[in-house]
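This is your field. Have a critical look at the following sequence-structure pair:

***
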Amino acid sequence: MLPKWDNSCSVHNAKIDNQHKKLFELAAKVEIASDRSVSKNEIKKLLTEFFNYMKNHFHDEEKYMQLINYPNLEEHRQIHKEIIQTMINLIKDVKSTNDLKEKLYIIVKKWLLEHILYEDMKVEKWRSLSLSTDDESDISFEAIEKEDNEQLQFYLYTCHCPNKIHDVPYNIQQKIEFEGHNFTCKTCKESIKFYKKHLDKINQ
C-alpha cells in the first residue's frame, strides 16, 4: 500500500503542498493500475501524466528553494535529475505491460517515500529551525490556509543575514500581524521584518 496524503506530509507551503497532493493522487492511480488488467496504452498515458506533472513540480520546487536560499538546493536538484532520468529510462526500456506496471509502481513508491516524505521534509525542517520566538523557544508551523481557490500567499520576511528570505506560514504571519508576536532569525539573532507578500497561482 502506498502512503496517503495527510497533514504530516505538509511542508507548510500551500503551492508545494497542493502539488504533492496531486502527485499522491497520481500515485494512487498507479497503484490501482498495478492491481488490475490494463492496456499498455493506459499505462503509458498514466506514466506520461505522472512524468510531466513531476517535471513541472520539480521546477516550481527548485524556484521556491532558490527564493528562500535553501542551503542544500544543489543536492536536492541533483536528486530531481536522477528521478527524471530514472523515469526516462523506464519509458525507453519497456518489455511488457506487466514489466512497465511493476517498474512504475516501484519508482512511484520509492519517490514518494524517499523524496516527498524525507527529502522535501528537510526543507520544512530547515525553515522551522531557522526561526525562534522572542524567548528563543522553537516554533511550530501549522496547516496553511488559502484565501480563495485562485491564489496562494507567501509571506516573505528578511533579517540581518545577507540575501536570506524567510517564508513565514499563515499561522506565524497571523501571530505577527494581529497578536504582536516577535520572531527572530536563529542565525543573526535579529527580529524578522516583513518584506513582501508573494501571490502565486494554485494550479500550475
The CA atoms of residues 30 and 105 lie 6 Å apart. Confidence is low (pLDDT under 50) at residues 146-151. Helices lie at 14-34, 40-67, 73-92, 97-129, 170-179.
